[in-house]
Amino acid sequence: MTDMIAELIAARFAEETTFGKGKAASSVHAQQLKHRSRRRFKPDAIPAETMDILFSCALSAPAKSDLQQVSIIQLSDADQREAVTDLIPSMPWIKQAPEFLIFCGDGRRIQRICELRETEFAHDPLDAFLNAAADAAIVMQNFIVAAEAEGLGCCPISAVREVTGEIADLCALPSSVFPFAGLCVGHPDDDPAISVRLPTRLTVHKNQYDDSQLEKELTSYDQRWREVNSYRTQRNIDKYGEVKRYGWSDDKARQTSNTDRMSFTQHVKANGYDI
Ligand SMILES: Cc1cc2nc3c(=O)[nH]c(=O)nc-3n(C[C@H](O)[C@H](O)[C@H](O)COP(=O)(O)O)c2cc1C
Known about the structure:
- By secondary structure, this protein is α+β, with helices and mostly antiparallel strands.
- The chain has a domain at 48-192 and 258-270: NADH Oxidase (3-Layer(aba) Sandwich), CATH 3.40.109.10.
- The chain has 13 helices and 4 strands.
- It has a 4-stranded antiparallel sheet, with helices on both faces.
């Protein structure tokens, strides 16, 4: 059956839309609009050739100044894999996925090239860090798009940054190479609801930034979100109590009320990025 673009957009945002009314969706647009992170996998291995194709597709992403500041660690060794899963026991999908990758921002390669070509590396550390992080993020997303086109499913894992030092040791990451996110890849064995997105009225600004409608839009977004998605448990009940109509905004406000990933900041500062 042909995917109609307005129907897919309506499902993604959980509200009616006039966008693309009556138009068939291209296969790429349909795949993007149907994207879901997958957290259960069949045991079937992914052939090495498929992985090579997916790496090639992923690394075709645009790169800042063509510096290509990304490295991907493919954790194929069973002991290495087990060590990572032991570090993040709350996410059993890391263990179950037949492939687990770590996408790293890599500021080391260009510094080595500067040495080899006898120039000085003089980029501002914050900008250098951001460029490497952006390259890693874009390559990871390109990998996800390529994998989904093969019928595979993925789940990014930023939790690797909760244990940055341990991951760096395990994968022998040198200074200036930092983990951006892990990625579980496999044949999906779950059927999660689509994750409803904030309306483009909030996220696309015409000419000038304007968030004057945030509060109003959040109320209706939380309502739409609850109809499709739901969290099994409310966060930080001790501190914030239990609410009847727990929505996305409650969850995200509570989630970000905790300090997060300080080990990552310390690791990056001590390993090549004086930010
Ligand atoms: C950079 C990044 C890091 C993420 N880290 C995790 C993670 O550590 N564990 C996890 O289960 N999901 C993780 N996710 C998946 C998000 O939770 C998911 O993308 C989000 O809930 C939206 O759902 P969807 O991808 O199904 O649309 C991450 C996603 C991104 C882009």
